[in-house]
Amino acid sequence: MRQNLYNFTLQEITEIVQKIGAEKFRAKQIFDWLYKSKVKNIKEMKNLPLQLLEQLEAKYEIALPEIIKETKSKLDGTTKYLLKLKDGAKIECVLLYDKERITLCASTQVGCGCGCAFCSTGSIGFKRNLEPCEITGQFILMQNITQNKITNIVLMGMGEPFLNWENVNKAIIIISDKNGPNFSQTRITVSTVGIIPVIKQIADSDLKINLAISLICVDDEKRTKLMPVNKKYPVNEIIKIAKYYNKKSGKEITFEYILFKDINDSIKDAEEIIKKLKEINFKINLIPYNNSLNKDFSKPEYEKILKFQKILIDGGIKTYIRKEKGSDIKAACGQLAAESGEEK
Fold first, then answer.
1. CA 177 to CA 276: how far, in whole Å?
2. I need a surface site. Which of 73, 134, 141, 184 has the fewest CB within 10 A?
3. Is the Cβ–Cβ distance between 249 and 109 less than 8 Å?
4. Kind and range of the H or E element at 152?
């Protein structure tokens, strides 16, 4: 089986061409063809010697995921894409529009094994990790659709990025390579349920990406019911690694806090956030729950959300209410499930 060239960093492609016996500079030419000219097959790389083209074609290919369904929100223009991968597996990615800003919400796994009670993706279960080419492929497809106007990338789609960190990290390196797409790492945000070893790894690295942690609750009993991963990575450990991340990276963390009616939306819940997180450099995004497959949850009344926000702001916390986008097409937070869309 031929390997996908989108799976490799520039350094790895350099090693490939040198192993074949070609000059080192040919790797940069290949990278240009992939990410600047965006050729669809190796034969289109016109400035490569015929012998090198034949050697590459024997072992490698250029392939992107296939868009099999596009669904556009009538409310805000958010567009969800159902993609089919080479093995027939399906994932979803989303384009979100906000004035001059276009954000790609990309997936990192087929399904998810974290089992969060409120998340549609979790209901699928874990199928497999995405390869780097399947992550960069989402970016390339969406850049083509937007005419290279994507301003931000959030790895908040299907899957837990830090449980596929090797491939996600490689995809970030490829997307941000100045010799390739040259997309700034400071415009890439990775969201995690709180996989502490990888958070530490990122804190100790040279990566400039932004970190978002799905906090949901600061009460361990509640958080464990909503997010089973809390058994392994409880709130106090999340707080410790957040402080470490602040110190090592010098960067602010975003805590994502989905608000559920009568579960984590009380005055006491807000006061506990202020108390427990006071020594961390962070901001908090309040996300009113989006209806997904689980009907046991609902969002609080808007007045209660505003009151919750005010308590946090008065407590000195930068607090924002995330705009709901794409909820009518199941493209909002927690709603991606690669459902339906099979070609008839």
1. 38
2. 184
3. no
4. strand 152-155
- Tell me if 113 sits within 8 A of 159, measured CB to CB: no
Q: What is the pLDDT of residue 323?
A: 81
Q: Which of 92, 131, 134, 160 is catalytic?
A: 92
Number of neighbours of residue 2 by Cβ within 10 angstroms: 13
Nearest C-alpha neighbor of 234 from the set 212, 248, 216: 216
Other Cβ atoms within 10 Å of 128 Cβ, number? 14
Is 342 catalytic? The answer is no
Active-site residue identified among 116, 134, 333, 342: 333
* Closest listed residue to residue 136, CA positions, set 38, 230, 241, 218: 38
Catalytic, 12? Answer no
Choosing among 3.20.20.140, 3.20.20.70, 3.40.50.300, 3.40.640.10, the CATH entry for 66-329 is 3.20.20.70
Give, as one character, the DSSP assignment of residue 300.
P
| Statement: the pTM of the whole predicted model exceeds 0.70 | yes
Contacts of 76 (CB under 8 A, 6+ apart): 97, 325, 326
